Batch of 2 targets.
Target 1
Amino acid sequence: MLNILFIGDIVGGGGRDAVNALARSIMDEHGCTFCIANGENMAGGNGFTAKCLKELANSGVNVFTGGDHTWDQKEFPAEIDVLDNVLRPANVSSFQPGRGYGIFSTADGIEVGVVSLLGRTFMNTHANCPYEAAERIVAELKERTPYVIVDFHAEATSDKIAMGRMLDGKASAVLGTHTHVPTADEQIFPGGTAFQCDVGMVGARESVLGREIDSIVGRYRTGMPTRFPVVNEGIRLNATMVSLDEQGHATAIQRIVRDFN
Ligand SMILES: [Fe+2]
Ligand SMILES: [Fe+2]
């Protein structure tokens, strides 16, 4: 049996601190030997930097997945190719640096395939078809390992459920990210794929998606452009744990909520 912890979008320095403080203890508590976290908001709320990733080097997270904010920090395109624990979305132009999927290893040498995918429905992205990419990549990874986890970073619940259903019996788990709000639909589909529309975030409870409430409310209320500062205290960590059998089929899925400060 393999237990994997999947952590939702890490937002800013507060999110990074919470992951550093909590990820290993949650993994120990649930017998997890592998951890995936969506990192697209880790650098001040927008994108990745090598420096932020270094801060999380001993957090317990094996792989960081990307999203629509992957390239928000201007230095990151030049940094990603030497980093072996970060995925940008797989279904983007092949001219983009980095890679979208890979095989990673637990401490005890079990190989886990991880795929980062980006949705297109209600999202302003330059992504290619995520379904075409998913079918091709999951089949390729399954040649190497029964354990394949997909992060589908997408807006619409219908889009995410459709992806989960398409990959039922093919991927071990299809877990959603991007909305920063955890959904209560965690389940195991008939073919053995664990699924949840959205895992949530590691961000402030008193916020709108990790950002200052007044700034977001003001933007919606007035339509005026404004900055959206990240809230770095009162952090809640949302994650989901999946248990997989030797065939890579899910036997359990469980939502985890932990308050940091
Ligand atoms: Fe996000
Ligand atoms: Fe996103």
Note: The chain has a mean pLDDT of 98.
Target 2
Amino acid sequence: MAKILVYSEEPDVALQLVNAASKAEEAQISVALLGAGDLKEISKKLSVSKVASVFQIQNEALKDFGPEAVTDALEQISLESKPDFILIGGTKRGKEVAPRLAVRLKLGCVTDAQNLRFENGQTTADRVVWGGNAISTVSTKSGAVITIAPRANEKAVGSSQPEIKTIDLQRKTRTGKVVGKKPKDSGEVNMKDAEAVVSAGRGFKKKEDLTILNDLASTLHAVIGASRPLTSDLGWMPESRQVGLSGTTVKPKLYVAVGISGQIQHLTGMRDSKLIVAINSDKNAPIFQECDYGIVGDLYQVVPALTKALKSKTGR
Ligand SMILES: Cc1cc2nc3c(=O)[nH]c(=O)nc-3n(C[C@H](O)[C@H](O)[C@H](O)COP(=O)(O)OP(=O)(O)OC[C@H]3O[C@@H](n4cnc5c(N)ncnc54)[C@H](O)[C@@H]3O)c2cc1C
């Protein structure tokens, strides 16, 4: 029976990890819950089917989920619960913590694991490598820290009555001091959680033309994203809007690619969208191999026509 400990500072991601862990036959799943405030409500939320125990550490040092304090806490929980595998949500914070924890516990570390399988006391996972051009398959015997990207799995559901174990944090390392916080630019949007994304590519001839997407995006309640040429190269949009390998990975219900050719570095960031629509004037553009619906045509004609048709259908 594999003993699996899961942790993410984001409760929804922790639930996705529980779902990934529950694919192991007869897994014994524990959840690590850390924070500075009252943990009761989150503990209830995490008490889903198959969760046998919740290890809680409440301490002011965990207020900002700084990697040093979180690593100390997870090390303590791991020494107590002795898991075979530790799954960590691949958030920014999670990616800071996983390698630190692996070094502390003298374990291997597999990052960005996809399609995780548990077989005969070992795990096997796929990892996208070489800029999205290849998949490597990695196997690890028990004793590994593994990160899994947010939203790679559905959230676990159901309920359980796990044993709640409360531990006092013993600090081993010094924590960096937060000297200030700055809100994000107001132009920034939450791309990764968007339900619909309309993205612009190099098919747009000039920056001013991007305004034709505003109407389509608002009709679809979508946020506007972009391919890399429009962000890093031309600076028409902030880099926070970039979808792809070196940008954000999105997984919306609807993704509309407008004037985007569909290079692998872009596809890596959006191919898990539920429904993909592509608009491109080149019928041989690679994006048409990836989409559910493809419109071959000039975006300057297709986008206004599509927006008009959607408006008359939805009344928005
Ligand atoms: C290490 C690395 C990381 C990268 N990371 C990213 C990343 O995160 N995200 C990303 O997007 N790219 C990334 N890239 C760049 C990537 O390789 C491609 O260059 C980029 O995705 C191409 O963007 P595009 O499709 O908008 O432009 P293009 O490839 O130039 O495609 C433009 C498309 O618009 C179509 N078009 C032209 N005019 C019209 C019209 N009037 N109507 C309709 N269609 C029209 C054309 O047929 C064409 O298919 C990365 C590259 C590297 C090397």
Note: The CA atoms of residues 127 and 136 lie 5 Å apart.
